[in-house]
Design brief:
CATH architecture: Up-down Bundle
Number of strands: 0
Largest sheet: none
Number of domains: 1
Structural class: mainly alpha
CATH class: Mainly Alpha
Strand content: under 5%
Distance between the termini: 18 Å
Number of helices: 9
CATH topology: Rhomboid-like fold
Shape: globular
Length: 225
C-alpha cells in the first residue's frame, strides 16, 4: 500500500536540490519551449501568436462573428508569456506551488486542476473587463489556483495534527498583492500591467475547488494511533 499524499513520507537522507514532480516538469518544459518558439518567429507572426492564443474578452462580447481562438484561448493563453521575466516568475511559482499539489493530487489531477483554475481566471477577467481588446497571456491565473490549493492543503494537514490555520489572512494578502500589481504594475517591469482579475479568479477557484480534485481515499482523516 502506498503512503497517502496527505501524510508525506519521511525526507530522504540526501534529498536532491531540485526534486521536481513529473507533471510540473513537463508543464515547465512545454511552457518554456513554446515561449522560445514564439520569440524566434518574425515580429508579425509573434503578434498573430498572441492575438490567436491569448485571451481577448472582446472575442466573446463584441466580435461581429464567431472566432475559433475564442474556443481555445481559455487554455492556450496559459502557455503564452510576454517576456522572459514574466515567464521566469511564473515558472518559479509553478515549481514552488505545483510540486506540493501534484504530490497530493497526482499528475493528471494536478494538470486538470491547473487548467481549470486558469480557465476560471480568464472567466473572471472577462466578467470584469468584458469589452477589452487587450490579450491576456500567462499562467498566473492557473498558478494562483495552485497557491489556493496549497493553502487548503496546509489547513487540512494542520487540522490532522490538531491545529487550526486561518486561511483568510493569507487569502487577503494574495488578493491585495494582485490588486496592487494590477493597478500600479509589477515592480521591476517598468509598470507593466498585470491582469489582476485573472489572478483573483484563479486563486478563488483553487480555494473552492481543490477538495473536489483530491482522491477519495485521501479525504479520510488518518487513523488514530
Amino acid at each position: 500500500m502506498t503512503a497517502s499524499p496527505w501524510r508525506p513520507d519521511p525526507p530522504a537522507a540526501n534529498p536532491p536540490m531540485f526534486n521536481l514532480t513529473p507533471m510540473v516538469k513537463r508543464l515547465a518544459i512545454v511552457t518554456v519551449a513554446l515561449h522560445i518558439i514564439r520569440i524566434v518567429l518574425p515580429p508579425e507572426w509573434q503578434q498573430l501568436w498572441i492575438l490567436n492564443f491569448g485571451f481577448v474578452p472582446a472575442y466573446y462580447t463584441v466580435a461581429d462573428r464567431f472566432l475559433i481562438p475564442a474556443v481555445l484561448a481559455p487554455i492556450t493563453h496559459q502557455f503564452v508569456h510576454g517576456g522572459f521575466l514574466h515567464l521566469g516568475l511564473n515558472m518559479v511559482m509553478l515549481v514552488a506551488f505545483g510540486t506540493g499539489v501534484e504530490r497530493t493530487l497526482g499528475g493528471r489531477r494536478m494538470l486538470l486542476f491547473y487548467l481549470v483554475c486558469g480557465i476560471f481566471g480568464a472567466a473572471f477577467h472577462l466578467v470584469v473587463y468584458p469589452t477589452s481588446v487587450v490579450p491576456v497571456v500567462g499562467a498566473s491565473g492557473a498558478i494562483s489556483g495552485l497557491f489556493g490549493g496549497i493553502l487548503r492543503l496546509v489547513a487540512v494537514r494542520a487540522r490532522q495534527m490538531g491545529r487550526v490555520v486561518r486561511l483568510l489572512p493569507a487569502a487577503a494578502v494574495w488578493i491585495g498583492l494582485a490588486l496592487m500589481t494590477g493597478f500600479i504594475g509589477m515592480p521591476g517591469t517598468g509598470g507593466a500591467s498585470v491582469a489582476w482579475a485573472a489572478h483573483v479568479g484563479g486563486f478563488l477557484a483553487g480555494l473552492a475547488l481543490f477538495g473536489f480534485f483530491v482522491p477519495r481515499y485521501d479525504r479520510r482523516p488518518p487513523p488514530s494511533p
